[in-house]
Design goal:
By secondary structure, this protein is mostly helical. Helices cover 28% and strands 0% of the residues. It has a domain of 26 residues. Helix 1 packs across helix 2.
Length: 76
């Protein structure tokens, strides 16, 4: 009786490396962000960048100048 080698994490798959597709996020977990104020780090992340002290300070000034409307340039 020989055993088929398997890829770790895929028991019974005979070595195939398949990953199931995640189901869509349930509606109850989605939110618009209107439940709390936007902070400078949020604004930096919305721009697709990683927060650094310089970018956070720039975002803080932008939020002071434009208020919550600053988010609208990144969201449709």
């Amino acid at each position: 009786m020989s055993e088929t080698p398997e890829t770790p994490g895929t028991p019974g798959e005979g070595g195939r490396n398949e990953t199931p597709q995640d189901p869509p996020t349930p509606d109850g977990l989605l939110h618009s962000g209107g439940d709390r104020p936007v902070d400078p780090e949020d604004l930096v992340r919305l721009s697709g960048r990683e927060p650094t002290p310089e970018l956070i300070e720039e975002a803080r000034r932008t939020l002071e100048r434009e208020g919550p409307a600053a988010v609208e340039r990144y969201l449709p």
